[in-house]
Structure prediction request, 163 residues.
Amino acid sequence: MKYSNSFSTHGALFKNHTSNSTKSRFLVIMGICFLTFVFISCGGNGNSTGPDPEPDPDPDRNVSFSQDISPILQSSCATSGCHDSGTQESGVNLSSYDDVINSVGNQYGESIVNTGNPDESPLVDKIEPDPQEGQRMPYQRDPLSQANIDSIRAWIADGAPDN
Prediction:
C-alpha cells in the first residue's frame, strides 16, 4: 500500500509538473507574440500617407514635380472635396503643375508658390505647423511627413520647375 501511495503522490507531482511546464511554455509563446505585435505596430511614424520615402541617394539632385511633388499632392491634397479641380477649396487647385503654379489662395491673396522662396510660399506655410492663416493642411488628416515637406520646400527653392 505504501508503494501505491508513493506512486500516486509521484504521479500527482509529475502531473503538476507537466501542467506547470505547459503553462510556462504557453506564457513564453504568448509573451513572444505580444512583443512581436508591439514591435510591428510601433513601426512607422504614424503618417496615414504611408511610410517616409527612403533617403535620396543623391541629395544634390533637383526635386521633380512629376516624380516627387505631384504624388504627394495627389494623395494628400488634390482629393475630392479639397483641392481638386472640382472643389478648389479656398481658391486652391493642386491637381496639376499649372494649377499649383497659378493657384491664388483666398486666405493669403497671393500665389501659393513663391518660386525660389519656400519661406514666403503660402503652400509651405499651410503644410507646416501653426500656419499664419487658417488650419494646417491636410485638414483633419495626418500632417505630411517631414520628408514630404522638405521635398516641397526643395522643389520651390529650386524655382518650382515643371519637371
The beta strands are 104-105, 110-111. The first strand starts at residue 104 and ends at 105.
